[in-house]
Specification:
Helix content is 35%, strand content 16%. It is built from 22 helices and 26 strands. A five-stranded parallel sheet has the order 3-5-6-8-11. A five-stranded mixed sheet has the order 12-17-16-15-13, with helices on one face. The longest helix is centred in the C-terminal third of the chain and has 23 residues, at 615-637. The structure holds beta-D-glucopyranose. Beta-D-glucopyranose (BGC) binds at residues 42-43, 102, 149, 228-229, 346.
């Protein structure tokens, strides 16, 4: 593609279209010049290719493999897993004609309650960077681009569309930007997705310091920066700041702002041209025709189980595991049959098939029909369900559901050996840890988690996962817990001390530390020896089973290198890790805390729940929420089935998203079904200005037809 020629030939109207998305997941084609459209799709741990054009909600997508989520894959400490998963997802992308995958998500887990922690890798920037980079390389090696998200400091959900992450430059650079920097420099992602939130008062979508000065100039990123869906605020300011593509687009107002800005000179043509150039380069590279060969779904299902088995963490074991097959088993907990294997939200996949622990035990012919009194071992399958953990809102506490805790207690009261099998994407308190014999954490293991679980329980596979985040004793031990997720201003008072950096330094006891994970065999590690930037240690399998182990190198208490190895009984291997030199400029620790914005009058940036302050606002709020309520009611009528589960998830997610939306973000997400003048009308009405509100509704925003409509 002769990009310079296209740049000369594109009209300003076509340029304004090229930098805006369309039909929810596509870029705008320019048929006159033969510029094709690119198709994007979530991401990150499997494909959510919506059926047809437009937004069909999260439950209507093509069947695809649901791989373990990042909370699981990070715990494998094996980047080969995310690389192989990336390759497999890319094959599915190629089959469905998807050109860019919206993932991986590499934000740090600042607080265990963040609703999206299941989609993120770790509390440690190095581990998150290495695992994310391997996924990027895997996907891109097959000719599909990625969008690394959500750039940056997107660490909570309750105020996701308007939140202001307030942190010192040192905290931002030494911690939160690190995974992105690592991935940009090592894996060259095609695109980066900017986050919804503000950083120190400036929205990421128009943050020149973030997008231009750091991402492009300091790190040398030369791909496309797109918005998260609906993260646009001021279109002209965003172009000037280095933001190329507005998603999902079809917002007349953004094209209007561009055309007006160019006409009156307030938006330099060079800024628009630069964005067009970045987008054209991306289209040129990735707009390839769909692959007709169907992926090997069965092989991907098997791969999902292999990865899940390498991720699971054996948190505790007094010898009850592995099972020898002779036990008289009783099974409790509804997750045995209704395994939770993926998260809720935009990453939700319509799986090609699902193998639960029940399916897997039945396939092995395991008998588990003993009662709690007749039996000698009890397996309890518990964990977080979708009501408790989802994109769109943060969790309210760090506990397992009460009924599940009560169930575990009842099982322990029998005096039998109790094994707890845990599912879920984030940390929970484990008050029962001292009472049970073993805890096997499967995280969200993907669609074939049942197979992995059975193999681990019966010892065909040896657990080798290590925690990628600390498991504190209780939520009150978490730094900054008092204020997390409670207001628009999210203040990072703990600075660089998150996760193990905090617990170790302040000697706060934890349930299970970062890096912890048991095995059915035993290992010894020699001390690390140093030769310049290279460190070595010898690991020996001193037990009687084949198993995986992770050599972890901490310098000054910080993870600087690691390597996972697999050893036969008696085998030794010397691991060598080369540490990347760190330049250590001194950044400011200063924290500038602004005032909370007033809740009244309602503005375009108000959280939707704030509309409820006024009579008319309440009517509008209820009208908007009724969409989700209707979907939920319809789902409830369906018979118990995966379809019902998916529809319920979809409806619950929609409710969360609607509650946390602002009038502006809703209009920026909904395209022509909620134009910007409607959002303005909502605000006027909610503030009691009925005539002004009515005027807004009647004043539509005029823009030229899109190039694809011209063609028709
Ligand atoms: C999420 C992104 C996702 C996008 C498209 C947004 O709401 O934050 O992670 O990629 O939707 O579905």
């Amino acid at each position: 593609m002769d990009i310079q020629k296209y740049k000369r030939e594109l009209t300003v109207e076509e340029k304004a279209a090229l930098v805006s998305g369309t039909a929810f997941m596509y870029t705008n084609p320019i048929p006159r010049l033969g510029i094709p459209s690119l198709c994007m799709s979530d991401g990150p741990h499997g494909l959510r290719k919506q059926i047809g054009e437009g937004d069909n909600g999260i439950s209507q997508s093509e069947p695809a493999t649901a791989f373990p989520t990042a909370a699981a894959t990070a715990s494998s400490w094996n980047p080969e897993n995310t690389r192989r998963m990336g390759e497999a997802i890319a094959e599915e992308c190629r089959y469905y004609g998807v050109h860019t995958l919206l993932g991986p998500g590499v934000n740090l887990k600042r607080n265990p309650l963040c609703g999206r922690n299941f989609e993120y890798f770790s509390e440690d920037p190095y581990l998150a960077g290495v695992m994310g980079a391997a996924e990027v390389e895997g996907v891109q090696s097959k000719g599909v681009g990625v969008s690394v998200k959500h750039f940056a400091l997107n660490n909570s959900e309750n105020f996701r569309f308007m939140g202001n992450s307030i942190a010192s430059e040192r905290t931002i650079r030494e911690l939160y930007l690190r995974p992105f920097e690592y991935i940009v420099k090592h894996a060259k992602p095609a695109t980066v997705m900017c986050a919804y939130n503000q950083i120190n008062g400036v929205y990421c979508s128009e943050n020149k310091w973030l997008l231009n000065d750091i991402l492009r100039k300091e790190w040398g990123f030369d791909g496309v920066v797109m918005t998260d869906w609906g993260a646009m605020h001021d279109r002209a300011a965003s172009l000037k700041a280095g933001l190329d593509l507005e998603m999902p687009g079809d917002t007349a107002v953004c094209r209007r702002w561009i055309l007006d800005g160019i006409a009156d000179g307030s938006l330099p043509m060079e800024a628009l041209d630069k964005a067009c150039e970045n987008i054209l380069r991306w289209v040129d590279r990735y707009a390839i025709p769909a692959d007709e060969t169907e992926p090997d779904w069965k092989a991907h299902h098997t791969l999902a189980a292999e990865i899940a088995a390498d991720c699971a963490v054996l948190m505790k074991n007094d010898g009850v595991l592995p099972l020898n097959g002779q036990e008289k088993l009783h099974i409790a907990g509804k997750l045995f049959e209704h395994m939770r294997y993926q998260g809720a939200g935009s990453s939700m996949i319509n799986p090609t098939m699902v193998t639960t622990p029940k399916d897997a035990l039945d396939a092995r012919g395991v008998k588990y029909d003993c009662s709690p009194d007749e039996c000698d071992t009890i397996l309890v399958f518990v964990g977080l369900t979708d009501e408790y953990e989802s994109e769109g809102s943060d969790r309210e506490n760090m506990r397992l559901p009460d009924d599940q805790l009560a169930l575990i207690d009842r099982m322990c009261d029998t005096g039998k050996k109790v094994v707890v099998v845990l599912f879920g994407g984030s940390v929970v308190e484990l008050p029962f840890a001292d009472r049970v014999g073993a805890i096997l954490n499967m995280f969200l293991p993907g669609q074939n988690g049942g197979t992995a679980c059975a193999k681990l329980l019966f010892g065909d596979e040896n657990p080798s996962g290590k925690l990628a985040e600390t498991w504190p004793l209780r939520y009150e031990d978490v730094p900054g817990h008092e204020s997390f997720g409670k207001s628009v201003n999210e203040i990072y008072t703990e600075g660089t001390e998150i996760g193990y950096r905090y617990y170790n330094r302040h000697k706060v006891p934890v349930r299970y530390p970062f890096g912890h994970g048991l095995s059915y065999t035993t290992f010894t590690h020699t001390e690390w020896t140093q030769d310049g930037d290279t460190y070595s240690q010898t690991v020996t399998n001193t037990g009687s089973r084949f198993g995986g182990e992770v050599a972890q190198l901490y310098i000054d208490g910080v993870l600087r290198g690691f390597q996972k190895i697999y050893l036969a009984p008696g085998e030794s291997r010397t691991v060598t890790v080369t540490v990347e030199p760190e330049d250590k400029p001194v950044y400011s620790d200063e924290l500038v805390i602004p005032q909370e914005p007033p809740k009244y009058p309602v503005t375009l940036e108000s959280r939707f729940t704030d509309l409820k302050q006024t009579f008319m606002g309440r009517i509008l709020f209820n009208a908007v929420l009724s969409v989700a309520a209707k979907q939920e009611k319809e789902a409830q009528k369906l018979p118990d089935s995966p379809e019902r589960d998916n529809k319920m998830k979809g409806a619950q997610f929609l409710r969360r998203i609607l509650e946390s939306n602002s009038p502006r973000s809703m209009s920026m997400t909904a395209g022509s079904s909620m134009p910007y003048n409607f959002a303005q009308g909502f605000v006027e009405l909610a503030n009691g200005h009925y005539i002004r509100g009515a005027k807004c509704f009647m004043t539509s925003i005029k823009v030229p037809k899109l190039p694809k409509e011209e063609q028709k």
